[in-house]
Amino acid sequence: PKKVTITTLQNLYKNNEPITVLTAYDYPSGLFIEKTGIEICLVGDSLGMVALGRQNTNQTTIEEMLHHCRAVSRGAKTPFLVGDMPFGSYET
Q: For the whole model, what pTM was predicted?
């Protein structure tokens, strides 16, 4: 399969074709997404709760997000990868 790009997604949208998205937090889930042909792979800051056992996403750091994005990207080579910005990391 070819790498999914912004152009790929725009063409799917223009042709009124479904765009699939699934969340991954680690290498095995990234590999699963790779094998299923899903177009977009999201690494959400919800990993703070789902993978790290926290009560909410507020404590998830950019370093943790980068760590998990790297792990997912090793498995998910062709999907378009989207990584959340952790709470408060984009505001002053």
A: 0.89
